[in-house]
Amino acid sequence: MKPVKVGLCGLGTVGSGTFNVMQRNASEITRRAGRPIMIEQVGARRDNPDCDTTAVLVSRDIFEVVNNPEIDIIVELIGGYDTAYELVMQAIANGKHVVTANKALIAVRGNEIFQAAREKGVVVAFEAAVAGGIPIIKSIREGLTANQINWLAGIINGTGNYILTHMRDEGRTFEDVLAEAQTLGYAEADPTFDVEGIDAAHKLTILASIAFGVPLQFDHVYTEGISRISAEDVAQADALGYAIKHLGIARRVANGLELRVHPTLIPKQRLLANVDGVKNAVMAHGDAVGPTLYYGAGAGSEPTASSVVADIVDVVREMGADVASRVPYLAFAEPNRDVEILPMEAIETAYYLRLVAVDRPGVLARVATILSEQGISIEAIIQKDANDADLVPIILLTHRTRESEMNEAIRQLEALADIAGDVMRIRVESLNDQ
Amino acid sequence: MKPVKVGLCGLGTVGSGTFNVMQRNASEITRRAGRPIMIEQVGARRDNPDCDTTAVLVSRDIFEVVNNPEIDIIVELIGGYDTAYELVMQAIANGKHVVTANKALIAVRGNEIFQAAREKGVVVAFEAAVAGGIPIIKSIREGLTANQINWLAGIINGTGNYILTHMRDEGRTFEDVLAEAQTLGYAEADPTFDVEGIDAAHKLTILASIAFGVPLQFDHVYTEGISRISAEDVAQADALGYAIKHLGIARRVANGLELRVHPTLIPKQRLLANVDGVKNAVMAHGDAVGPTLYYGAGAGSEPTASSVVADIVDVVREMGADVASRVPYLAFAEPNRDVEILPMEAIETAYYLRLVAVDRPGVLARVATILSEQGISIEAIIQKDANDADLVPIILLTHRTRESEMNEAIRQLEALADIAGDVMRIRVESLNDQ
């Protein structure tokens, strides 16, 4: 059978992994795909010493690859928004199928990309955009196709999970572990995308669309990072039987859809609570199947390449199928535009609060009264011994309540003369996996 | 688009779940599949009060369903070998696609079934045959298609996992928990298939074929059950930092393939060690992706139906693809018949041994000498206090060694005058998931 010809754009971390996996496992991949798949041309600004490209056409101009009429599938691994967008749109205009690992591009401009691809009848595949090597797009989009998804929750940023894991295991501060992660190459020099939750929000946007059949709506994701989490919060959570994880959560509720990224206390015995270091995991709960979980490497050269190459093989298969028989880009033939993404004020969850009070009689009663007046019921309250400055840390766990009521309670708490500084608030979710 | 017509054979636990999920989620399934899928006819010996079949043609003779020319896809959910085999082969002969949840049928007669299906150009799908609702076939067969799989290990029998979980959590005996599981409906009146590992061996046979591209070889799986595990073994393992899980393990080694089902000590911090109750999980380790894990309900009406319906949708899609573009039944276009399944004597693993010695001087030295003479090195040895009968339990952990050498050592240990009764041997695996 005639080989399928791939144009590989980008030869950085993921590009080099893709190149090497395709060379090393060529015979197994051919046996699985039923026909040979070869890299016809590589487009990269510079060579990568990890790849032996001597037998392959190499171009310094990625647009030469996109315009090469021999090529069937363009693999976009250059990252970023602008050039990547141009590249992908040109590939589609040229009638080529596209495989990409670019979560930002898909989350932010996916709707227009899929529209263009639909009009040209080409496939755009993006398994590697979410959770690296874990086949999470395929599992939700095809494996759980019988289900109405109730909710999903995932550790979908390895850097954040690395930092939280080491804060917990070693009692260290956020800043300290971040600096170490930067030295080890697990965090960027500018870590904003990872630690402030933007990268996780990109991925959650994609997961939610394929799970719930809604258009990509990155702008509607509530996004909160982990930079305010203190060593004390980690220790207090642990003492209460919880781990703090940075989660992306999407949940179907009666009046719409919750889409939120934030630090979350989850019970220690949950599998998700035991996903440590740079690893990723996504839990998806379907009405028929119940809870399911998918775990693996969320980033890295060859793990991400594993998903890129799986996509290439899927595209090769879809090339032999009529367009109506292909898996829709976002799982559903038509996205449902009538589902409201709820504002954060409308969601309901439980809360962990940590406040610092001046040590005088009645302070606990005043705190409890404010919560009670907002209809917030308390599950646990722990008052520590006063420190040298006569300040008393108070830790609270509440039952489920509405975020708007909690916002009002926190406003009133912070206005109390007894309370020093800001109230620390972390959301608490049960995420039952049994 | 013309609806695809399904014939559902069997209306028991999984059949009724399939019927109900397809009715309840019909609109979401249609939106995903891109065309309506309807149950045209049900074949079942009796009605199921959980299903409202009034709008559907019902036949008491499943072969009427298989011979109905209107039907595109036959769903075999009657279980067992003989009638199910006849049914599936007749469906294939009639040019119909087949979806089945029948692990025994696929593991034992899959090679002939796939051969017949290949000749007729029809699809046979069997996601529900392994690990219930977990999309494990799809994840390994398609999601990890870029990888050479190094090993996989799974908790793939919910009954066994339920028993071991309750033995550990409540310090109870095997017989005691089994009786409870039978009362609760988690175990059959004759529990042999589950507790002696035959069911797990069926599933491991299938997983190994799709992971390693070898023919189905149920007869070559080493199979050992959990009925000899005592409450003391569970407690000793726990004290040493291990959980005992009943695992199916397949591993590629230099000279062949290991295929084995047996109780296994694994470190407590592994995710697999924390998969409890009736839940299933499979860990698959690929050369590119590293360790990945898939978790969920391994049995039950609607979880299993989730996989059956996902298969139906996949078959609908494959109906629109040329035969060469379909995913091969066992992942590879042609299975590799040259890979040897190693006899159990040839595998290497670490071991937990529990022996009961007569309390007299030198017994520990004699035990250590026997192991040393077989080249077996000891990681830990624990001698307990003597009981009333002057018997001393000795617990040993060894480093990795060859099974044949361990067999010889156990033979010699049991021949010692100092040793009372049989030596209990449980294999120990690290199964690193980081």
From TrEMBL, chains A, B:
Protein's name in the database: Homoserine dehydrogenase
PROSITE patterns cross-referenced by the UniProt entry: ACT, HOMOSER_DHGENASE
InterPro entries: ACT-like_dom_sf, ACT_dom, Asp/hSer_DH_NAD-bd, HDH, HDH_cat, HDH_CS, NAD(P)-bd_dom_sf
Biological pathway: Amino-acid biosynthesis; L-methionine biosynthesis via de novo pathway; L-homoserine from L-aspartate: step 3/3; Amino-acid biosynthesis; L-threonine biosynthesis; L-threonine from L-aspartate: step 3/5
Catalytic activity: L-homoserine + NAD(+) = L-aspartate 4-semialdehyde + NADH + H(+)
Documented EC number(s): 1.1.1.3
UniProt-annotated binding residues for NADPH: 103
Keyword Amino-acid biosynthesis: yes
Keywords, ordered alphabetically: Amino-acid biosynthesis, Methionine biosynthesis, NADP, Oxidoreductase, Threonine biosynthesis
Keyword Amino-acid biosynthesis attributed: yes
Active site: 203
GO molecular function terms noted in the UniProt entry: homoserine dehydrogenase activity; NADP binding
Positions with a binding annotation for NADP(+): 9-16
Organism annotation: Terasakiispira papahanaumokuakeensis
Family classification: Belongs to the homoserine dehydrogenase family.
Binding site for L-homoserine: 188
Domain (ACT): residue spans on this chain: 352-428
UniProt cross-references to CDD domains, sorted A to Z: ACT_HSDH-Hom
GO biological process: methionine biosynthetic process; threonine biosynthetic process
